[in-house]
């Protein structure tokens, strides 16, 4: 029996949450860890200035991953 259009939409939404959560969390982690690995002082200063943005991206990404996990748990 083929999945209903509603099931397809839910699955696609869940996959989107997972993908976006991973990408945004990785961007946040890269911004936060960047100053420690950058060699150029100018790049270190630039990345250090984005600390608030890095934390926001990391928390947002983790929240999207948590939402994905809750949706999956509820479906079972």
Molecular structure report:
The protein has helices at about 5-35, 40-50, 50-75. It has a domain at about 30-75. The longest helix has about 35 residues, at about 5-35. It is an all-alpha fold. It has 3 helices and no strands.
Brief description of this entry?
The protein has 76 residues and is mainly α.
Largest sheet: none
Determine the structural class based on helices, strands and strand pairing. Answer: mainly alpha
Rg on CA atoms, Å: 17 Å
> Roughly what is the average pLDDT, rounded to an integer?
87
Enumerate how many helices there are, as a single number.
3
Give the termini distance in whole angstroms: 19 Å
Shape: elongated
Low-confidence segments, ≥5 residues, pLDDT <50? none
Q: How many E-type strands? A: 0
The level of helicity is over 70%
| SSE order | HHH
Beta-strand content bin: under 5%
